[in-house]
Amino acid sequence: MNLKSEQSLTHRPGRFLIHAAATFGALALIATSELPTAQAADPVMPPFPPGLFYPVDGGSSPTFPGATLVPRAPVFDFAGIPGWIDGKKITNAMGVTIPKYEMLVIRGSKIDGKSIVIPPGGLYFDASPARGELPMTGASDFFLGKRYYFVDYDARIQVRQNLLVAPKKFTVVGNHLYTLLLPPVPKVVPDPVVNWRTFDGVSIRPWALSERWEKSDAAHPDQRPLTYLQGVIRSTDKTGVTFASLTGTSIRSEWWAKRRIFEGWAKAGQKIVHGGTGIVVKSVDPDKKTVTIVFLEHGKTGKTHVLKAQNSPTLPENPSIRKRMVAIDGRTAVVLWPHDALGANGVRLWVYGGVSQWKTNSDPFGIAHVAYFPIACPIAHHIGGMIYNTRPIRISPGKPASLFGGYATLKVVSVSGHTVKFRLTTSSGSTPVFVKRGNIDAVLGKGRAAHGILSSLDTTDLSIDRDLSVTK
What we know:
- 4% of the residues lie in helices and 46% in strands.
- It has helices spanning 28-31, 319-323, 448-459; strands at residues 17-19, 75-77, 86-91, 97-106, 110-112, 115-118, 123-127, 140-143, 146-165, 171-173, 176-182, 193-198, 203-204, 210-213, 230-237, 240-266, 271-274, 277-285, 290-297, 300-308, 326-329, 332-336, 342-343, 346-359, 370-376, 382-389, 393-395, 401-403, 408-416, 419-426, 429-430, 434-437, 442-444.
- It is flat.
- It is mainly beta.
- The protein has two domains: 1-258 and 356-392 and 430-472, no CATH class; 259-355, DU1608 C-terminal domain (Tick-borne Encephalitis virus Glycoprotein, domain 1, Sandwich).
- It has three helices and 33 strands.
- Strands 8, 9, 14, 15, 16, 21, 22, 23 and 24 form a nine-stranded mixed β-sheet that branches.
């Protein structure tokens, strides 16, 4: 990887600091503050193999301003921001341990006189677990330093038709960004090499989809199809690859809880409450595999729900089955164990309190001018959550900007011509003073998205390799 440091810094212990080389700025893919987006016609359904559980969107999926921005020659500081979650290991109820990270990305920033301007979507906090998360597993994550429990979510698949994936552009499908790294090279690479990444930067290289040809032959054999992220290639030429259909995943809503009230076996008649709010397990019917739950609100009887336990191998992914095993009423939620929820000890379940629905592009945190955007992996698991700025941010020396309700403060130390000095501070300490030319684009932290952004900047260099021969 061609990286160089623009300066020598005094490091605090454990800090690793690198700058993306200036040569990255020459890359067309990352040289512009906002990349053009390829357009698509109405979606069609490709021939998915069995196992498609998530509903298909009707031609649209959530996005936000700045979704296709890429940091330009950013500062990479994998030590992150003092006091933020950094590799904290959390073991869920399934016995799976997943490290958690919190990171900050600045992209699309620019010098404007003696100030720095960050566009909408150009600054985001990212909760970045080391692998995907699912409800019905006891999963939890950290947002702005606070732990939340994953209750349920509404994931979708988007299918787009007649889609051009070209070099130096992003094609948006779901919350995924596609760009062409390499066209087919005769007798070397029979299929095009497509780069995939999410809005927050998680990347799988060189491609993350099964590529099939609309008219396959010996020269263009079909790859084995995956369940999700499928591409059906219509044609390739010097402008790029035209897909007859291409898919991506996204999330419309998530439900998170502030606390876990109970986890384990409960018997019929058992009351589970916290601060006067909770449930009563009214009855358990092993023959019908049903559990009747009565919600309690400040000691008063509320709604009754009948949940049906199932042992489907498609859980927890299958939303139609999951809907019968999850009940949310007000700020309380009950979730049945995904397998063998009924037994001699009664019913195995979770009870959560402080539950709220986090709609995509809404503000669940009560912080002005920010919104939440959940990130879905290729098979629609939750793999992160962005909290991004909805309005431009202008920062001048001597006038620090409070970020995310005070979780961090961004300070511009000085602006001198094309050179900016800046740092991040928290109640736990501060980063070094970073020196940057032209902007303050940065990737701070070592979450999965941070490494994905670094990977994207590296592999993108292939897209303008002038020594390659391409199909005419």
